[in-house]
């Protein structure tokens, strides 16, 4: 009798409390609000149950933790060997990861539904399993049979690849403890829940709690962990930005629906460059690496079309040649329209003003449409000169010669500024058969004499226009 009373007293001490949690950034509020004051998202606060009691990080199933027993050590005595990275054998994926999967690292792969995250994971893991690595693939979305059917299509046959259809965190951690896999995939984190929380799977508290438990256990076992996450309409990984802070690497898998190209982009990487991209093509037998993306992006380029220009953009360590197209028409009503796909809108507005003022073209009161082909997004400053060349070419209706590549940064005074890594860009253009390159004069001084490719250095927008038109 006495026991029951104390249990009751104890239970009443752990008070349940209702909080409203922003599903976008994790902000908590005791009352409902229409707009999150932290991330300014509308209608993102959802009612969830929280424990009053402060809960520590519980470790289910595994005794080890990556903090236990470790003492401060001088950095010089720590050893890191090249073998500490697992190579998947898919070159594009390994490069984006910074040269392979680091043991004990947590990687988040985000992307729109249906873009190919599960396919990429299954293909990469099949390769690792074939090399003798024990892989546990937890699927919260598909039954083992469905995964098997997909695997057959992709030609996956390995006894080391274990498929587990499960949604509860506790069971997943139990099976990790039993199976002791060399690598763990959780597809997707929005379908996993822990029984210790009352909120539904996919809510911020569930995603945060389950992923922190998974990461904690993976680090303790030195086991790499891949977490697959869905992306919301506006491009953030559904639920929490908090998740991005918890993992070591965040990769986005993107691409346009109608296109077969898929681009894997690192947006955070504790073990490599975040500028790196990997290019894939979705085929009927799964994802295929694209080893030479420039050739692919330029494959369907129109002949002698005004407004079409090839620029060189450095994506990570690799220069990629991409086509930019523009279309300029007189604005019929009121404010001229600007539509930009694949480049920052404000940057195009800025360069349009430079072209008007310094290039002497009266384009401000025209509708401007600008597009990067192939579904890729460019952010590098070196494409400035290409954007201006494209706009001028279409406005003047004078095509830029087919085998000319343009790159350079443009300042507000209309000056063309030097950019980094001119040499690899020129090499790439030469490899693809281009015969002329317009680049900043500043970069010319550092480049030694070259073969068939003609280099033309320019110092201003005006000078570039004199060369081209
Ligand atoms: P999937 O990996 O299921 O996407 P995600 O996990 O990101 O939601 O990819 C599914 C899409 O890819 C689907 O629309 C069909 C297509 N696909 C192919 O074109 N070829 C293939 O071999 C496979 C397995 C999928
Ligand atoms: Mg999937």
Summarize the topology:
Layout: H1 2-13, E1 16-22, E2 28-29, E3 45-51, E4 85-86, H2 91-96, E5 101-102, E6 106-111, H3 117-130, E7 135-139, H4 144-153, E8 161-165, H5 169-179, E9 183-187, H6 204-220, E10 225-230, H7 242-246, E11 249-254, E12 261-269, E13 277-283, E14 286-289, H8 293-297, E15 309-315, E16 318-330, E17 338-341, H9 345-358, E18 366-372, H10 384-396, E19 404-406, E20 409-410, E21 416-417, H11 422-431, E22 436-440, H12 441-444, E23 454-458, H13 461-468
Parallel strand pairs: 6-10, 6-11, 7-8, 7-9, 9-10, 15-19, 17-18, 19-22, 22-23
Antiparallel strand pairs: 1-2, 1-3, 4-5, 11-12, 12-13, 13-14, 15-16, 16-18, 20-21
Bound molecules: thymidine-5'-diphosphate and magnesium ion.
Residues 117-118, 141, 187 line the site of magnesium ion.
Explain this structure.
Helix content is 28%, strand content 26%. The radius of gyration is 27 Å and the shape is globular. Strand 20 (409-410) and strand 21 (416-417) form a beta hairpin. It has 3 domains: 2-51, no CATH class; 88-291, P-loop containing nucleotide triphosphate hydrolases (Rossmann fold, 3-Layer(aba) Sandwich), CATH 3.40.50.300; 295-468, Ribosomal Protein S5, domain 2 (2-Layer Sandwich). The protein contains 13 helices and 23 strands. It has a 9-stranded mixed β-sheet, sandwiched between helices. It has 469 residues and is an alpha/beta fold. The site of magnesium ion has 4 residues, from helix 3.
